[in-house]
TrEMBL record:
The keyword Repressor does not apply. It comes from the Bacteria. Keywords: Ion transport, Membrane, Transmembrane, Transmembrane helix, Transport. Residues 236-306 form the Cation efflux protein cytoplasmic domain. Residues 14-23 have a biased composition (Basic residues). GO terms for cellular component: plasma membrane. Its main location: membrane. InterPro entries: Cation_efflux, Cation_efflux_CTD, Cation_efflux_CTD_sf, Cation_efflux_TM, Cation_efflux_TMD_sf, CDF/SLC30A. GO terms for molecular function: zinc ion transmembrane transporter activity. This is Cation transporter. It comes from Deinococcus radiophilus. Residues 41-232 form the Cation efflux protein transmembrane domain.
């Protein structure tokens, strides 16, 4: 069994050998700087979440669809921050007898639920925008302008809080990009408030709301699709299964590759299991296969070797003790 640092276990079923290793993405890895990362995410989450409530309330009071759309967009930021914080917290829990892969898939389950909710919000905003474009309503521009400006300040502060950790943590980096993208929404609402204030063109508000909605929906759909792919144990995005199979088949002595499975437990934790048929298989071939998998960013690898004509039952493997 791997100890989480690349060491390998050898075993056999009577027909072949198995090798098992964890790369840097295994659940046994250390989470350096997790405390600092959690603090950064918590500060940004409190700032953004508090302002989300304020913006949603004032969007209803002012009648601004653009402000409501921006609140919906900010909800995506709050979701991203919360999921990133959840990943840090839950990812620290070790695997146990009930959850042998650990608890990191909680992040994906939460992402799927939130993406479905946000998608519904995005479509509602688009529907409401069409209604208001047909029948424009009066908008209170001054409160709309003030709240949007405050939102811009909150996003700037959140970005400043996260900027220190976005180089060290993919979670923080994704949250940082979410906050930065929300700056566009705040700028759009400010521009809309100024245009309406000086021209009286109330149709600008639902137009901006529709544009923000069109910005939110594709990103939310992408999040939902990626989450469902992980939950369905699909091949992780960015991995070409045919190319991976070809690279494994090209290893010296390999005559067949079968039962190849590649999936993710959560983002950044890719797993692979496969059977390789070879006349002269051994530890060297297992290590070579693990190196191939590593080039595809797969850190948790299980390889079983078989002799030609002995299709192994993947059922029970007996462990060899040196």
């Amino acid at each position: 069994m791997s100890d989480g640092h690349g060491h390998t276990e050898q075993g056999h079923t009577g027909r072949g050998h198995t090798g098992h290793s964890h790369g840097g993405h295994g659940q046994g890895g250390h989470n350096h700087g997790a405390g600092a990362t959690a603090r950064q995410l918590t500060i940004a989450l409190v700032l953004t979440g508090t302002f989300l409530v304020v913006e949603a309330v004032y969007a209803l009071l002012t009648g601004s669809l653009a402000l409501l759309s921006d609140a919906g967009h900010m909800l995506t930021d709050v979701t991203a921050l919360a999921l990133s914080l959840l990943a840090v917290k839950v990812g620290q829990r070790p695997a146990d007898r009930q959850r042998t892969f650990g608890y990191r898939r909680t992040e994906i389950m939460a992402a799927a639920v939130n993406a479905a909710v946000l998608l519904a919000i995005g479509f509602y905003i688009l529907f409401e925008a069409v209604q208001r474009l047909l029948e424009p309503t009066e908008v209170q521009t001054l409160p709309m302008l003030i709240v949007a400006a405050l939102g811009l300040v909150v996003n700037l502060i959140s970005a400043r809080v996260l900027i220190g950790g976005d180089q060290d943590s993919l979670n923080v980096r994704s949250a940082y990009l979410e906050v930065m993208s929300d700056l566009l929404g705040s700028v759009a609402v400010i521009a809309g408030a100024l245009i309406i204030m000086f021209t009286g063109w109330n149709w600008v508000d639902p137009l901006l709301g529709a544009l923000i909605g069109l910005w939110v929906v594709p990103r939310t759909w992408s999040l939902l699709r990626a989450s469902v792919n992980v939950l369905m144990e699909g091949v992780p995005e960015g991995i070409d299964l045919d190319a991976l199979r070809a690279d494994l088949a090209a290893l010296p002595g390999v005559t067949e590759v079968h039962d190849l499975h590649v999936w993710s437990v959560t983002s950044g934790q890719n797993n692979l299991t496969t059977h390789l048929v070879s006349e002269r298989g051994g530890p060297e071939l297992i290590h070579a296969a693990q190196e191939v998998a590593g080039r595809y960013d797969i850190g948790h690898v299980t390889v079983q070797l078989e002799l030609p004509g002995h299709h192994s039952d993947p059922g029970v493997a007996a462990r060899l003790h040196p």
